[in-house]
Amino acid sequence: MPIKNSFSRRAVPYFFVLPALFLTIGILYPFILSLYYSLTDYRLGSAAIEFIGFKNYLVIFSSASFWRSLGLTAGYTAASLVLQIGLGLAGALLLNNDVKGIQVARSLIILPLMMPPVVAALMWKVIMAPNGVLNYLTGLVQFSWLGTNTAALPSLLIIDTWIYTPFVTVILLAGLRSLPQEPYEAAVLDGGSPWFIFRTLTLPLLKPFIFITALFRTIDSLKTFDIIYATTKGGPGSSTMLLQVKAYFESFRHYSMGSALSMMMVLWLVIFVMSRVLVGFWARSSRQALGR
Amino acid sequence: MASVSLINVTKKYGRIPAVSQLNLEVKATEFFVIFGPAGAGKTSTLKMIAGLEEVTEGEISIGDTRVRARASDEIDVAMIFETYALYPHFTVFENMAFPLKSKYRKLDSAEIRSRVEDVSRSLEIEGFLQRYPAELSGGQKQRVSLGRALVRKPRVFLMDEPLSHLDAKLRHQMRRELKKLRNKLQTSVIFVTHDYMEALSLADRIAVLDKGRLRQVGTPDEIYLAPEDVFVASLFGQPRINLVEGLVLNQNDRLFFSTTDGAIVFPIPAGLRECLERSNLEKITAGIRPTSIQIIREQSPAAVRVWSFLSEDTGSKHLYYMRIGETSLTGITESGGIMEKPEKLFISVETEKVLYFDHAGKRIREG
Amino acid sequence: MKNRPRQNAKDTRKKVLIYSGIVLFLIFALFPIFWIFLMSLKTDKEIIASIPKFFFRPTLENYEAILFGLKAAGTETSRPDFILYFKNSLIITSGAVIVSLLVGVPAAYALARFKFKFKEDIAFTFLSFRFAPEIAVIIPIFVIYRSLGLYNTYIGMILVYQLITLPLIVWIMRGYFEDIPDSIEQAARLDGYSWFSIFRKISLPLVKPGLASTAILSFIFAWNNFIFGLVLGAKETFPVTVGTLGFISYESVLWGQMAAASMVTILPEIIIAFFIQKYLVRGLSLGAVRG
Questions:
Q1: Which of B8, C173, C273, C285 is surrounded by the fewest CB atoms within 10 Å?
Q2: C117 inside domain
Q3: Residue A2: is it exposed, middle or buried by C-beta count within 10 angstroms (0-12/13-18/19+)?
Q4: Is the dihedral of CA B42, B47, B49, B53 positive or negative?
Q5: Has residue C75 been placed in a domain?
């Protein structure tokens, strides 16, 4: 019988992970590089790179447009979170009823998810055009939804909500359907009103799912780029200049990579912190739901 | 067939010891049962013998070869899991053929087919060979699991509570079949269970484990009739052995056991006298098995009056919960039910079968 | 029973509410897609008409333009590149998913089964890809790619797309592998099989459904990506998502063709979704359940 030596035994897990590990290291290098660049005055195309420490950060922290951008990003994320989770929850509750034809509805609802956000944004750009069908349906005349300063961001929110609410709905629906049925039967027997049952039974048990969805949506929302690039490119004015869009233009139009990357490091930090917070909420609600 | 030996084996999960300083010797062709309540470390021990878990300290050998952790594929040991662990995507035939196709065995397909068919015939599952595990009942899955182990003709059989998920009737039946099997097999079997009836009926020897420590090793008779301590005595027997605290009395140069309120008195066998006198014990515990208590309707010198009485009829057996003075006793008989009032009832104890334990719980023995 | 009629009325009212809610939802979700579909069948003149037309004679000229490069009547140019972009998406997305499967599934298995040093650190690293803003990663990769000659290449794109597909596949497949009871693989070990054989013959077959749905999910996410293609590619490697933007230029907007392009772009995804939507939902929600 062949006896494998103990080295090859211990090495087995590493063989499995090795290729993925190489890729990971391959990715880590750019990560570290971007951190490095953010501390330099690197400009695309120039050969000379000078290490300037935190100068980039100081510049952006004293720049009003940076703070405006950050504020817009935060506000956009918060608003989309409220909208999408609210509507998504409503949708999930509606779809949780086993009425006739519900399966069809459940399959149709994921359609917006199937589209690339860019394509969806283009579609809405057409619909929201001055001579588009949205104006026709709402009775407005030649109103440029995406071209008007005060309306641009809300319009983007509408698009964002349209694209991502199905995602929330799908996850919350799965959550609803995974809940045990017996407590409900007991509650009905005890004579609880639907609203009461929802508040005390459904909501606490659903919280883990809500927080998970909030986590995914928050991360992606803070990084919003596709939709904006396809429609307003940050305008009009800079009313929709969210942070990652700003960084894109900073690096590929103005060529200041160092500056752009410092903005991205800040964004990364924000995302990281928000994720920790949300994961904490998720973990706690998970424990509470399981009765620990 | 091979012997299995565990020397000073300890298993810790983090800092928690699941098994401490375990020493066992299983002889080749012996049916050896590892018995204990939940958490005793039985399954951990079995997994270490199979090389599925690492030994924290000590060593395990099968025959002459040491068992190395994670080398489970080399050691030629067959294991039957509590949950059967059948391959869900293989048919029954493929499940049983699988071990024969591994690189250690390399049998040709004709040989594989004949072995699988032979074993399935002896286990009466030849009709299921093309079915998938999901289509089988618990008992059938158990047989397939057994079959998968049998086709291999391994050196050692390990069985991890194989009967615990079967219903009572099936369990009885499988116990009988295992007994038949074990007489045919000439291989060492290490069988883990928390069911004392399985242990007593199947084992050549039993090792009693508690919280990772070995309490006693012996034949079923030794374990049942001569338990080391109160713990082992309590584990075997349903209903549990009655443990009665009392005193040693010397009357007319004979030793008697008496409860503190004096309601129950009976003589202590002479053989134990020496030991009792040597250790100068006054307070001891008497272990009276419910089967050693007889309920009689007439007064006799050995009889003790019953104060209160509750009976539980379970078909063929009758359980009696009695109160005598301040002592509660449980008795069991297979004869007819008792309808009389307690005042008319007496118990008589088979005093030779009573076990005595000291204040530390250890049994008092002759000599 | 006196309560019956009132109870029925309440039930019916509830049902009506539910149905109307669902219909409203569906209208909101589907109308835009429906509208663009209509648009793809109109001529550009009909599209920019001031009053949107719901009834018209459908024409396939837009599709012909983007697929076959036929000049549509009344338009100056057509975009034959669209087929190229579609092909690019197909190559890049499939390639990325395949690479991720080859690399990620064994890694997921190792993370599920083995105990080894740095295990959770490695797992966390995979996850952290999701946190990073794309631009933060793209800029250094852009610089590196230009110097290595990977800019505007399929290989370069497939490698970058790993940022999207690999974490997903590793994370979800890890869960599926963890679902396999330990005892089954232990039984296989005792039966005399090495870990590689067990992986191939036991574990992999048992996770096949999960594998399919995860592969499809990552295909969809990769197909939908825009920014990597925008920055790290050029005309030769632009995926179809970047391609659809090309219908808008400073001179003119080719509305009809853009609409047709949008439809063609989402076609593979709709087909896939149609056939495996049950598995898709399970995949998404299992990912959520595992956190």
A1: B8
A2: yes
A3: exposed
A4: negative
A5: no
* Structural domain that includes position C252: 81-290
Q: Does domain B4-226 have CATH number 3.40.50.300?
A: yes
Q: Give the number of other CB atoms < 10 A from CB of residue B32.
A: 22
Same domain, C243 and C152: yes
| Dihedral, CA of residue C8, residue C11, residue C12 and residue C16, to nearest 10 | 170
- Choose among C130, C162, C244: nearest Cβ to A119: C244
A197 close to C (CB below 8 A) = no
Instruction: Mark out the alpha helices in B203-260 (DSSP H runs).
Output: 220-225, 230-235
CB-closest option in C39, C107, C265 to A16: C107
Separation in Å, CA B108 to CA B105, B148, C96, C208: 9, 17, 42, 29
Peptide bond into C133 cis (omega under 30): no
Question: Given a contact as 3+ CB pairs under 8 Å, which chains touch A?
Answer: B, C
- Per-residue pLDDT at B301: 66
pLDDT at B35 over 70: yes
Q: Domain containing C233 — which CATH number?
A: 1.10.3720.10
Same domain, yes or no: C49 and C85: no
Least confident of A99-108, A238-247, C14-23: A99-108
Q: Structure tokens of B252? A: 């007319």
Partner-chain contact B99 C181, CB within 8 Å: no
What contacts B212, CB < 8 A, 6 or more positions away? B11, B17, B18, B19, B20, B22, B40, B41, B44
In this complex, is the C-beta atom of B68 within 8 Å of any C-beta atom belonging to chain A?
Answer: yes
**pLDDT one-digit tens code per residue, C54-93:** 777 788 888 877 777 665 444 555 556 788 899 999 999 9
* Confidence at residue C173, expressed as pLDDT on a 0 to 100 scale: 92
Domain boundaries, chain B: 4-226, 242-357
Give the CATH number of domain A57-289; options: 1.10.3720.10, 2.102.30.10, 3.40.605.10, 1.20.1250.20: 1.10.3720.10
Structural domains of chain C, count? 2
Q: What does R_g of chain A's alpha carbons equal in angstroms?
A: 24
pLDDT of residue A69: 93
On whether residue C172 sits in a domain, the answer given is yes
| Domain spans of chain A, in order of start | 57-289
* CB contact at 8 A, C203 and C122: no
Q: Is residue C73 part of a domain?
A: no
Q: Are residues C54 and C29 in the same domain?
A: yes
Pick from A34, A116, A213: which is nearest to C265 by CB? A116
Q: For residues C115 and C148, state if they share a domain.
A: yes
How much is the average pLDDT of A227-241?
89
Q: What is the pLDDT of residue A11?
A: 72
Place C7 in a pLDDT band, splitting at 50, 70 and 90.
low
C-beta separation of A70 from A222 below 8 A: no
Residues of B in contact with A9 (CB under 8 A): 70-71
Q: What is the pLDDT of residue A292?
A: 60
**Based on the domain organization, do C54 and C86 belong to the same domain?**
no
Q: Is residue A53 classed exposed, middle or buried when 0-12, 13-18 and 19+ CB atoms within 10 A define those classes? A: exposed
The residue among A212, A223, A29, A34 whose CA lies nearest residue C125 is A29
* Domain B242-357, CATH: 2.40.50.140
Task: Please provide the distance, in angstroms rounded to a whole number, between the alpha carbons at the two ends of chain A.
Answer: 50
Contacting subunits of C (3+ beta carbon pairs below 8 A): A, B
Positive/negative CA dihedral, B260, B265, B268, B273 = positive
DSSP-derived 3-state class of residue B363 = strand
* Min distance A125 CA to chain B CA atoms (Å): 51
Measured between alpha carbons, how far is A78 from A60 in angstroms, rounded to an integer? 23
Q: Can you state the angle between helices C255-290 and C61-68, rounded to 10 degrees? A: 80
Structure tokens at C54: 């719901």
